[in-house]
């Protein structure tokens, strides 16, 4: 569940509900940590927690700057960014057509990947330099009591500590992101470098494997030093594995045409069908979604999920037309990857397949896509295994 909070340069900014959890965690850590890593001894307590929350908020503003650096540069290279979402583990810039990344020059992908970490390193260096030249130390001023007695407020006295925290965290964030752990920025930098020398598929597979290896090393270090590092390493390992699977899936879907895997025998319902009758129809046919027709033409789509918000006692007053959704379609000659992207964009589980005259020729579901991926990958592996098996040469007759 995400909420839109702003729009920057035409890019919508969303905050996921999980972001609130890590925001509160960071604020709490800042509030209980001693100088120069927090505000534990700041009095009164309300000032301590306000400073901690303000520091956490500013830190996540720098996280947003990190993602904007990626996104704005990607936009300049022709990669349209749908939105930016801040999660509990950071931010994600959603590219409208992710498969386009593999079609750009690897040097441009390298620049996009480096833009985020570089922005954090610059922010961190500038903030720590400011502390050094203004307050005489990158750590700020430890003895804030004298500052307060000289007439400065508690908040003003703790500005150096806030600057130190933000500068340090940005430097850590920047350098940590450069580690060659896919799908972090460093892993994407590695893939872009490898893509200059190999195919994009080989570069991605290599980057994923190296990322997994670095994650294991980090996990081992974390077990003996800091369990938080070990947990983060586990998360990065899982992310690398999932990214590898997603890349394999999209590569497979690129080579499949919708008309080859769509279902041509489509069950439909009329828009005038009473909702109660539709529910009974679903139980009989056991399909979760159906195209809605009127006079033989498709006018909408209805799923079991669409009926859930209707109270059971009120269902007799509704027809299919009252709750059906707009048709989301795909052309039969489109790739399965196009269908996959359409499902993700519109958050639907199935698409109606319409020809150039807007006639329905089939339907394709997420299950169809997953089955195609499984079969294609399985047969590919079987073919590779058979090709690698040693062949017995025929014996010559003597």
UniProtKB/TrEMBL annotation:
Q: Which InterPro entries match?
A: CBS_dom, CBS_dom_sf, Peptidase_M50, UCP006404_Pept_M50_CBS
Mind telling me what this protein is named? Answer: Zinc metalloprotease
Kindly give the PROSITE patterns that the UniProt entry links to this protein. Answer: CBS
Q: Which CDD domains match?
A: CBS_pair_peptidase_M50, S2P-M50_SpoIVFB_CBS
Localization recorded for this chain is: Cell membrane
Q: Which Pfam families match?
A: CBS, Peptidase_M50
- What does this protein's record comment on cofactor binding? Binds 1 zinc ion per subunit.
Task: List UniProt keywords, sorted A-Z.
Answer: Amino-acid biosynthesis, CBS domain, Cell membrane, Hydrolase, Membrane, Metal-binding, Metalloprotease, Methionine biosynthesis, Protease, Repeat, Transmembrane, Transmembrane helix, Zinc
**What sections of the protein cross the membrane?**
12-34, 46-65, 115-141, 162-182, 214-238
Q: Which PANTHER family match?
A: MEMBRANE-ASSOCIATED ZINC METALLOPROTEASE M50B, STAGE IV SPORULATION PROTEIN FB
Q: Name the species this protein comes from.
A: Methanimicrococcus hacksteinii
Membrane topology, record value: Multi-pass membrane protein
Name its co-factor(s): Zn(2+)
Residues annotated as domain CBS: 262-318, 323-383
Molecular-function annotations in GO: metallopeptidase activity
Q: What is its main location?
A: membrane
- Which family does this protein fall into? Belongs to the peptidase M50B family.
